Amino acid sequence: MSIIIFPAIDLKAGQVVRLAEGDMARATVYGDDPAAQATAFAEAGAEWVHVVDLDGAFAGAAVNAAAVEAIVRRFPGKVQLGGGIRDRAAIDRWLALGVERVVIGTAALEDPELVRTAARDLPGRIVVAVDARDGMVATRGWADVSDVAVADMAGRFADAGVAALLFTDVGRDGMMKGCNIEATIALAERTTIPVIASGGVTDIGDILALARVASEGIEGVITGRALYDGRLDLRRALEVGQA
Which entry of 53, 131, 169, 206 is annotated as an active-site residue? Predict the structure, then answer.
């Protein structure tokens, strides 16, 4: 089975950045033209790009809207967007602007009916983010940690019709520690919803390992810092993902 490779573009103050463990104070800037970065990913063969409005995740509303809109205009494939999407108006606005799927995290925990209704009305367009710190769900740009376990969070949407669960091990994100494949598989085994792995991808070995367990319910993997630091070649990752 194949897996989708989602190259990531994280936005902070209009720039392309990567954070370490979700800490806004530990941001590395990789460029000031997000749309050009999306174009480069497309030229390498990417059919999807994963975009996060980091400022929006903390603000609870779109902050880097202009940059996101520029990416949508320039990227010929599909855009998956997260960060600060917490009401139906925001969902509808982004989908109307050309975003293929929206990722809902904080609101999925605090307002699950929003997700259920949107997933019912918009099949295939809603992804639920399950961000974990030590097995518990983190929200509000990963600044807060809830008392809800990852598996319990996933279970709440088992019959909601969401397109996928985006599972991120926050402690590994941007740290080049390797993807938490064991935890990703464990989550996939607990749900019938496809799971997207995120956080810690280091090199092609992580892509190969995830591709081998695609049949367990792994839809894809998000990778950022490894691409920007040159440790992972996107063309090669895409080849492995489609093998």
Answer: 131
